[in-house]
Design brief:
heterodimer, A: alpha/beta, ABC transporter transmembrane region fold, Rossmann fold, 6-stranded mixed β-sheet, elongated, B: ABC transporter transmembrane region fold, 2 domains, 23 helices
């Protein structure tokens, strides 16, 4: 039991950061390199301001505060005054540095996130645009949720990496280098002693790394399962309520939820252990500085060396302690960023995998705009299969003269749908060619081809938006009068006017409250307004009431008028009014001709007529009202 | 604030863990205050005072404090994460349970993308508040208060001076909070919008391609994508400015200490160790100040998201059990609609049903006919109480459906709707959906009766084949028969049926008819009829027009009188007369032939292959994406 994930849940294998992937990602930042470079400079400034702080403090203590105090005790008030002025100056310098830090950080974060947001915008836009160009076959194999998750979640996780992760890694590196530099410069022996703790940190980090990565991978997997479960539960909620399955579903969701809880706790436990351990290691560093450094300072003190010249002074110790404290921050960060990078790498791979998918159907390099066509269609020895080794169409040829109405009939699975899929160039044939006005469809741009082709599918899909916008979906530029004209022509005007806000009524997701018949009429108006030369129609006979049925038939007449049309026919009236009937069976056109001619021939069509169409032999379409 | 309080209520059951976490917070925050004191001793008494033994003690003290603090930190993090994860776990379950119970009217309006965005992204944001926000808030407050007290006790003048910028910080936090919250709300809204545009684009990809509107879609997406960028930048800019500003304000304190404290030490009014300790405390003070900026972001974000989550939880299911609802035990199946009026909640002035009365005695079949929008779907939705009547009442065995427990009511009603939704799980589980504990024999029996068993057996994995969005696509006719098996297995007394199938070939049509016949036998049935056989066999035909009953009676009676029925019959039903007999004969012979054939050829392979779904015959297209 359990919600079956199929192969679609986001499972990640452990992976290294692929430099090539990173380069491609960085290419998106390239147009904003000025911003990035400025951000890096700002970051350097901010880092410098941070790293210099403790050093300044040490100088203030050793050079001004302690000598000043001694001068004051010795009665040298002039010198004490100077020292006070010096300390004040250092305080001012410190303040200035902090101001610099503020502004530099502001600049860095803003510049970088500006560049990153823009890069992400472009990446997302490119991804979406690419998906738009992918062929139907690609969509056939993928649930919508998976595609969506690429464009939303995966992109979001990369945003974190680009906007803060990468620059933080660089910043942390500089901080580490800066701190080590200052420590070594101030007292290299004491610095090296303090660095004894470093290997332990490295050991700790490597021990935890794999575990943390695995733990987080599991967390992401579990959250993906939750999302999948939720998505389906929402889509199927009506069935659930009909079958009173709410509680059983909850139990099932609860299991996934609990697994998610466990995975999260595992990851959290690792973190909860890691951070304090780093702090303990840091404490050893501090202890070493206090103990060794303290003794050393005492020796210098007893030897009478002035603090300004001493190898170890109270100032040095204070600075060292502060440095060590800061030293471990980047180390902690890095462990965190590492998992982030892992996650983003996985996301990145999935995104670029899509971007690298060549659309099966794309404009040939020299593709030309197809000019206004008359509408002649010709299939020449076309062989096609959804899987190359299983041909659905075999050496199929057909001709449709301009303005001809062609009905495609045949048993289920004969290849009717494939013919219209090829004509619209949703797929390309394996052999043979398809000509429109004598031009191979593969030599013209898809856009110019489909602009002149209207396609009405069985499953009527409307976009959320107004009825108006849905009707003019193919030609957004047209005015309301033309839309109303088209709606009138197909008989959709009346019901649209009865909607609460007429043409301005918002239709919900997938057509919402409109009935199936109404949606169909809207889609007819949409096709009519697009005014195509060639019309492809998958005649739906899904249940509509008698009245709507009549409306639809009339609309159909209107729609087909004067166009070359290919209709997968289910209605006798459509078949009879066709100029040419193509009987498709076994991937070939086995018969063609008019209704009467074919009936007289007594072949496949005659048999089909007996079983499928004959019963419709009534005066189905009444006279006008 | 009310939002936060309500969200935090999810943590209340885990108060012992919370307490443990807070005690650890208290102890670890207290321990950290020890370190600067140790430092002061190291300088004043050990180094300057010439006491090497004390130096060792201080060093060991630093390690000891770190180890102890580490333990408390671990306890605190672990306990707090436990509280956070448990609360979120509960929140998710609550949300899920709630979504499962929300009425049809809610789902008429809601968009899946929007709901998903709230249930996933927004819940995650709330989780971050629990995981990081809550205990950090307290820790930082404690740490801050502790340091302030110590500073005041050590050197009150210096203390006051070092905190001179606190009012500025408070002021900044106020402004930041006020500005960042709407920014986050807008980001969440825009993200949901983007999700929605995306979802629609992907489900409607065939239309996009058919109309060659890719460029238009890309533009549409660009607009949302761009707005999202702009909203993000607004928030980023605020954070980029205010976070380091808080650091800066804290650093001003350090500078003041250097200035004034340095002077005090030189003038002998304060020891160097004290100055260093002071500075160390200020460093510790910096952390809470720095966190406050982040916390404000975190809390603001959580409020923005929390509101969106609570909005769902606050939506009362319109249909709920009455407080004194009774269990509907065994029923006869006598269903009555008495003068029923109905209008949808969003359009209360437009009555969809106007005084409908229907009496369906046990075992009888009521066929509903009428034009689109006549109200026939509404009628069948009222019986299982997917909506409540506006006036009048619906009774089962004489009991108003509003007086019985929903669960008990619906468990007696089987429903097969036109848009068949199958879940992404095995066929077995899909059939057993209403009765998860059904035995294999019962499932197979139901599948046989629904005439889908042979097809299932032809699949490579039989009943274990995974279907639905993430599995094998079934054709419309196959899905419908699975749905019929699903309803059969529930063995309901009352049946709600939409007998319309999309275009299927004659063989499938025959199989569906057979399946329906098996299903309707002996049950009270409400059926939206498209088939002649259904109408002919109905005990009463109710013809609806614009929400009113315009004709009622048996087939023969209605046919004898002029009216809508006769028109519908002529147009839609009569043509089926010839076909039905033929189809039956043909399909029977086909079925006989079928049994002899190799099983996989029956259509399993056909349906598995990904065809261009929407453009394909319904009967052969996989329809993974409806509903």
């Amino acid at each position: 039991m359990g919600w079956h994930g199929g192969g679609w849940l986001d499972e990640e294998a452990a992976r290294r950061v692929d430099p090539q992937l990173l380069r491609r990602l960085l290419a998106y930042l390239a147009p904003y390199r000025a911003h990035v470079i400025l951000a890096l400079l700002a970051m350097l400034l901010a880092t410098a301001a941070t790293v210099v702080g403790p050093y300044i403090l040490a100088r203030a203590i050793d050079h001004y505060v302690i000598p000043g105090h001694e001068a004051w005790r010795a009665g040298d008030f002039g010198r004490a005054e100077r020292m006070i002025a010096g300390a004040t100056m250092v305080a001012g310098l410190y303040l200035g540095l902090q101001l610099l830090f503020w502004l530099a950080t502001y600049g860095q974060v803003y510049l970088m996130s500006w560049a990153a947001q823009n890069a992400i915008f472009r990446l997302r836009q490119d991804l979406f645009a690419h998906i738009q160009r992918l062929s139907l076959r690609w969509f056939d194999g993928r649930p919508a949720g998976v595609v969506m998750s690429r464009v939303t979640n995966d992109i979001e996780s990369m945003k974190e990496l680009i906007s803060s992760g990468m620059i933080q890694v660089i910043g942390d590196f500089f901080i580490l280098a800066g701190i080590m530099g200052f420590m070594l410069a101030m007292n290299w022996k004491l610095a090296l002693l303090a660095f004894i703790t470093l290997p332990f940190c490295v050991i700790l980090a490597t021990t935890f790394r794999e575990r943390v990565i695995n733990a987080y991978r599991k967390v992401r997997q579990k959250i993906a399962e939750i999302a999948a479960n939720l998505q389906e539960s929402i889509s199927g909620v009506r069935v659930t309520q009909s079958f009173v399955r709410e509680d059983a579903n909850l139990a099932r969701f609860d299991r996934t939820n609990q697994e998610n809880f466990a995975a999260n706790m595992q990851a959290a436990t690792l973190w909860a252990m890691f951070w304090p351990l780093v702090e303990v290691i840091g404490a050893f560093g501090t202890a070493i500085v206090i103990w060794w450094g303290g003794q050393w300072a005492m020796r210098e003190y007893l030897a009478g060396v002035p603090w300004e010249l001493a190898a170890v002074s109270p100032g040095v110790i204070v600075a060292f302690i502060q440095y060590i404290d800061r030293f471990f921050w980047p180390i902690r960060n890095m462990a965190m960023i590492y998992t982030e990078i892992q996650h983003a790498t996985a996301a990145c791979e999935k995104i670029f995998e899509i971007m690298d998918t060549e659309p099966e159907i794309k404009d040939a390099p020299g593709a030309v705009e197809l000019g206004a066509i008359r509408g002649e269609v010709r299939f020449e020895a076309v062989t096609f299969g959804y899987e190359p080794d299983q041909p659905v169409l075999r050496q199929l040829s057909l001709v449709a003269e301009p303005g001809q109405r062609v009905a495609l009939v045949g048993p289920t699975g004969a290849g009717k749908t494939s013919i219209i899929n090829l004509l619209a160039r949703f797929y390309d044939p394996q052999q043979g060619r398809i000509l429109v006005d004598g031009v191979d469809v593969r030599t013209v741009t898809q856009h110019s081809l489909r602009r002149q082709m209207g396609i009405v599918l069985q499953d009527t899909f409307l976009f959320s938006g107004t009825v108006l916008d849905n009707i003019r979906y193919g030609r957004l530029e047209v005015g309301e009068e033309e839309v109303v004209g088209a709606a009138r022509a197909v008989g959709a005007h009346e019901f649209i006017m009865r909607l609460p806000e007429g043409y301005r009524t918002e239709v919900q997701e997938r057509g919402g409250k409109l009935s199936i018949g109404q949606r169909q009429l809207v889609s007819f108006a949409r096709a009519l307004l697009a005014d195509p030369r060639i019309l492809i129609l998958d005649e739906a006979t899904s249940s509509v009431d008698a009245y709507t049925e009549v409306l639809i038939q009339r609309a159909l007449e209107r729609l087909l008028e004067g166009r070359t049309s290919f209709v997968i026919a289910h209605r006798l009236s459509t078949v009879r009014s066709a100029d040419k009937i193509l009987v498709v069976d076994g991937g070939r056109v086995v018969e063609e001709g008019t209704h009467e001619a074919l009936l007289a021939a007594g072949g496949v069509y005659a048999r089909l007529y007996e079983t499928q169409f004959k019963y419709q032999e009534t005066e189905a379409v009444p006279a006008d009202d | 604030m009310r939002t936060i309080a309500r969200i935090l209520r999810f943590a209340v059951p885990y108060w012992p863990w919370f307490l443990v976490a807070q005690v650890s917070v208290f102890l670890s925050a207290g321990l950290i205050l020890v370190v600067p004191r140790l430092l002061r001793d190291a300088i004043d008494r050990a180094i300057l005072g010439g006491n090497p033994r004390l130096l060792l003690a201080v060093a060991l003290g630093v390690i000891g404090v770190a180890v102890l603090r580490g333990l408390f930190l671990f306890t605190q993090r672990y306990a707090m994460e436990w509280v956070a994860q448990k609360s979120i776990y509960d929140l998710r379950n609550a949300l899920y349970r709630h979504l499962q119970h929300l009425s049809f009217s809610f789902y008429d309006q809601a968009r899946t993308g929007q709901l998903m965005s709230r249930a996933m992204q927004d819940v995650e944001t709330v989780r971050r508040l629990f995981s990081f926000g809550v205990h950090n808030l307290l820790r930082n407050f404690l740490q801050y208060a502790g340091i302030v007290v110590i500073l005041l006790l050590t050197h009150w003048k210096l203390a006051l001076l070092s905190m001179a910028t606190v009012p500025l910080a408070v002021h900044a936090i106020g402004i930041f909070g006020r500005r960042i919250r709407p920014a986050f709300t807008e980001i969440q809204q825009e993200l949901a919008e983007l999700t929605n545009v995306l979802q629609e684009n992907i489900t409607g990809v065939r239309v996009v391609k058919a109309f060659a509107r890719e460029d238009h879609e890309i533009e549409k997406f660009r607009a949302t994508n761009w707005t999202l960028l702009e909203k993000n930048l607004v928030a980023q800019r605020l954070m980029a400015f205010y976070h380091p500003y808080m650091d800066f304000l804290a650093a001003v304190g350090t500078a003041l200490i250097l200035w004034y404290g340095g002077r005090e030490v030189i003038l002998g009014r304060m020891s160097l160790g004290t100055l260093v300790a002071f500075n160390a405390y200020l460093m510790l003070l910096l952390e809470p100040m720095r966190w406050i900026g982040m916390l404000v972001s975190l809390v603001s974000r959580a409020i923005a998201s929390g509101q969106r989550v609570l909005e769902i939880l606050d939506t009362r299911p319109e249909i709920e059990d009455a407080p004194d609802a009774i269990e509907l035990k065994s029923v006869q199946g006598h269903v009555r609609l008495e003068d029923v009026w109905f209008s949808y909640p969003d359009e209360p002035d437009v009555p969809v049903l106007k005084g409908i009365t229907i009496d369906a005695p046990p075992g009888r079949t009521i066929a509903l006919l009428g034009a689109t929008g006549s109200g026939k779907s509404t009628v069948i939705h009222l019986v299982p109480r997917f909506y409540d009547v506006t006036r009048g009442r619906v009774t089962v065995d004489g009991i108003d459906v509003r007086r019985v427990k929903l669960e008990s009511l619906r468990s007696h009603i089987g429903i097969v709707l036109q848009e068949t939704f199958l879940f992404s799980t095995t066929i077995r589980e899909n059939i057993a959906y209403g009765r998860p504990r059904a035995t294999d024999e019962e499932i197979v029996a139901a599948a046989r009766a629904a005439r889908i068993h042979d097809f299932i057996m032809s699949l490579p994995q039989g009943y274990d084949t995974v279907v639905g969005e993430r599995g094998v696509g079934l054709s419309g006719g196959q899905k419908q028969r699975v749905a019929i098996a699903r309803a059969l297995l529930m063995d309901p007394r009352v049946l709600i049926l939409d007998d319309s199938t999309s275009s299927v070939d004659t063989e499938t049509e025959y199989l569906i008819q057979e399946a329906l016949r098996a299903l309707m036998k002996g049950r009270t049935t409400f059926v939206i009829a498209q088939r002649l056989s259904t109408v002919k066999n109905a005990d009463e035909i109710v013809v609806l027009d614009q929400g009113e009953v315009v004709q009622r009676g048996r087939h023969e009676d209605l046919l004898a009188q002029p009216g809508i029925y006769r028109e519908i019959f002529e147009l839609q039903l009569k043509p089926q007369e010839v076909s039905e007999a033929e189809a039956e004969a043909r399909a029977e012979s086909e079925a006989a032939r079928e049994r002899g054939r190799q099983p996989v050829a029956t259509g399993g392979r056909q349906a598995v292959r990904p065809v261009a779904g929407g453009a394909a015959d319904r009967s052969e297209a996989p329809e993974g994406r409806d509903g």
